[in-house]
Every structure is written in C-alpha cells, then in structure tokens.
Amino acid sequence: MTTEELNSPQGYKTPVGILGVGHFVPEEIVTNADLTKFVDTSDEWIVSRTGIRARRRAAPHQATSDLAVEAGRRALQAAGTRAEDLDLIIVATMTPDCPMPATSTMVQHQLGATRAGGFDLNIACSGFVYALITGAQFVASGTFRRVLVIGADCMTRLMNWKDRSTCVLFGDGAGAVVLGPVEPGYGIVGIHAGVNGAGGPSLTVNAGGSRMPSWSEGVDSSDYYLQMEGPEVFRFAVSVMGEAAIKALENGGFTPDQVSLFIPHQANARIIEASRKRLNLPHERVFSNVEHYGNTSCGSVPLALSEALEQGRIQDGDLIALVGFGGGLSWASAAIRWGGKKES
Ligand code: ACO
C-alpha cells in the first residue's frame, strides 16, 4: 500500500462525521499583564510575536481528566448521545493525570460510559487530529457506531515560569467531538498525517519517562518542563501547516479555494497567517481564538471548532479543514463536509 492510499479515506465502508462538539476551559484567566509581574516580558512583545493576550490556568484541584470530562459531556449533549451508548473513548493528551491509569479510563468512569472501551493517544499538539482520524477508522469499518474523541491538556503544568520564551505561549483547555455514521457525501472526506522524528529534539519534556525517571542521577526540575527551540518549531510549523491541509483536501478530491472554514492548531497568530496565505484564503475563512487561550495543545483544534460552531461560522454542507502540528515533530489534517447527521 502506498502512503497516498494509506492517507486516503476513500475506502471507508461507512461515511463518518462529527455529530456533536463541546469544549471546556478553566475559569482563571491569566493575562499578559499578569505575566509581566513575575517574568521579564511585555504585552507588546507577546501580542506582536504571537497574537496571544490571555490564557486559562487550571485550578490546583483540576487535572486534565476534569477538563476532558466536562468537554466530553458537552459534546455528548450536543450530539444527543447518551454516555451509555458510547463504544469507545479516545483521549489525546500530552499531560495525562498520571502515567497510569490512562486518562480515558477516568473519563469513562466519570461520564458513566459503561459499555465503552478507551485509550489515550500522545503525539503532542497533533494529538486531537490524530485521535479524530483514528476514531473515524472504527466507525468507517463498521466496528463501532459512537466514538468520543477528546483533546485535553493542562499545559501550564509543564511550564517553567522563569522561562519567558515558553511560559507566555501555553494555556489549559479541552474540546471533544462525538463521531458516528453520516449520510454519504458528508463527514471526513480526506485525511493526511506525518512525522519527522529528526526534528524531535526541538520540542521536548525530557524527564518522567523511561529514559530519565524521576530518581535518575542529575535530574532536576527543569527536565520536567517543556523546552522548545522556538524559531526552529516556527519554521517547521509554517512549512507544514498549509501543506498538510492541502494534502487532506487533495485526498478527498478538493482544493483549498473550496474550503469554507480553515481551523488550524492555535499556537501563534503569525503561523496561522502564514498558512492562510499559503492556502490563499480570505481572513474570514480562517478561524482563530489563540488571542484568548494561547496554545492549549490537544485542546486547541476542538476548542476552536467548538467556538466556530457557537459563533455560527459553520453551516451544514460547508467544507472545513482541520490541521494539528506539534512535538515529534508531527502533523495531521482532516477535511470534513459538515452535516449529514442521521437519526440514530
Ligand atoms: N518576552 C520578551 N522577550 C522575549 C520573550 C518574551 N516572552 N521570549 C523571547 N524573548 C526574546 C528572546 O530572548 C530574544 O531576545 P534576543 O534577541 O535579545 O536574544 C528575542 O525575544 C527574539 O527571540 P526569538 O525566539 O527569536 O523570537 P521569535 O520571533 O522566534 O518568537 C516564538 C518566539 C514566539 C516562540 C516563535 O518562535 C514561535 O511561535 N515558535 C513556534 C512555537 C510553537 O508553535 N510551538 C508549538 C508547540 S506545539 C506542541 O506540540 C507543544
């Protein structure tokens, strides 16, 4: 099988679409001005380099599963699906509550999804789109009818608040979708995914795994923080984001000019603007909420999708394109014809 065939969903036995979307963010808003009280930065620098004005921070008692459960609950409500009817829960996260048990098991329990299986998926900020196209395979094959896909992260837990080059960029949040069969011609019509492991060292959290366990010699707190070669990741993101969208669209037989709304990973307004230009789309056909939330990693794309729907930016029949990118280095994309919901 060629890569092209692997990336094409044309072989779907059952068309798969998004039946409902929801999101949840913690209450506390941390503005750029708040950050200037303890780190050498300015609102002007952050806004001009990233477009970010504020981010949310989880309360001490909140962990990723808490955000995921609430986003999942809202997606189920929007879809009109009962938790008991779920077949599978996939949680994309790089900040699980703990290494074991998986966050998806906590979500299953909290939601009361008594029949559902579950697993976590970690491919950094690309996680949600990877989880979306993974979950879709189960519906497409006819194996499952209802799959809950959640992207959730508490990125502030990985921040070194003394490192101004990273701590201003990230926030906490979650988004979720319910996948199920849709009418022919609707749903996920094109997908694409890739990694470039050679770029891995440019975006890391070094400790806490099997290479550098907590008790190993020389480990200090900085090894638990997210570390990033910002300009390198920036160049990667600019080169990959538009291309990934184009490949997913091409796999479905579409071109960028047919896209009604482009929903990219919300990491940096300059990266979003570069991909908008690459796709030659007008501003009104690109969605961004990075200003309010910063980079919420796996939460980013579904949180943007959820807000786009709330704002009436997506109508039945619209072609939308989702793209995630992040550590790995990694990326994934999906083209979706919105609507076509069947009565369950
Ligand atoms: N406030 C003030 N000055 C700062 C700050 C700050 N918060 N951060 C860095 N600077 C300074 C630097 O020290 C540097 O100063 P110097 O020239 O005196 O050395 C100067 O600003 C320029 O620094 P750069 O890093 O070159 O700034 P750049 O324009 O590249 O912007 C940024 C940095 C915003 C991080 C950009 O590179 C970026 O967005 N990169 C991509 C990040 C990203 O998308 N990450 C996705 C992660 S996805 C995942 O999987 C987790």
Shape: globular
CATH class: Alpha Beta
Arithmetic mean of pLDDT: 95
Supply the CATH superfamily name: Thiolase/Chalcone synthase
CATH architecture: 3-Layer(aba) Sandwich
Largest sheet: 5 strands, mixed
In the CATH hierarchy, the third-tier topology is known as Peroxisomal Thiolase, Chain A, domain 1
Poorly predicted sequence stretches spanning 5 or more consecutive residues: 1-6
- Helices and strands: which structural class? alpha/beta
Q: Could you state the order of secondary-structure elements as H and E?
A: HEEHHEHEHEHEHEEEEHEHHHEE
The number of distinct structural domains comes to: 1
Q: What share of the residues does DSSP label as strand, in percent?
A: 15-25%
Topology:
Layout lengths: L2 H4 L9 E9 L3 E4 H4 L7 H8 L3 E4 L6 H16 L8 E5 L10 H9 L5 E5 L5 H14 L6 E8 L9 H4 L4 E10 L5 E9 L7 E2 L22 E2 L1 H22 L9 E4 L4 H11 L10 H4 L6 H11 L8 E8 L3 E8 L7
Parallel strand pairs: 4-5, 4-6, 11-12
Antiparallel strand pairs: 1-7, 2-3, 6-7, 8-13, 9-10, 12-13
Helix pairs in contact: 4-5, 8-9
Bound molecules: acetyl coenzyme *A (ACO).
Acetyl coenzyme *A binds next to α3, α7 and α8.
Key structural traits:
344 residues, alpha/beta, Peroxisomal Thiolase, Chain A, domain 1, five-stranded mixed β-sheet, 11 helices, 13 strands, 23% strand, globular, disordered N terminus, binds acetyl coenzyme *A
What does this structure look like?
It contains 11 helices and 13 strands. Residues 1-6 have low confidence and may be disordered. The protein has a single domain, classed as 3-Layer(aba) Sandwich (Peroxisomal Thiolase, Chain A, domain 1), CATH 3.40.47. The chain has a 5-stranded mixed β-sheet, with helices on both faces. Strands 8-13-12-11 form a 4-stranded mixed β-sheet, with helices on both faces. A two-stranded antiparallel ribbon has the order 2-3. The two termini are 34 Å apart. It has 344 residues and is α/β, with parallel strands linked by helices. The radius of gyration is 19 Å and the shape is globular. It has helices spanning 3-6, 32-35, 43-50, 64-79, 103-111, 127-140, 164-167, 230-251, 269-279, 290-293, 300-310, and strands spanning 16-24, 28-31, 54-57, 88-92, 117-121, 147-154, 172-181, 187-195, 203-204, 227-228, 261-264, 319-326, 330-337. Acetyl coenzyme *A (ACO) binds at residues 41, 45-46, 49-50, 124-125, 164-165, 168, 203, 230-231, 233-234, 237, 267-268, 271, 295, 297, 326-327. Acetyl coenzyme *A (ACO) is lined by residues 41, 45-46, 49-50, 124-125, 164-165, 168, 203, 230-231, 233-234, 237, 267-268, 271, 295, 297, 326-327.
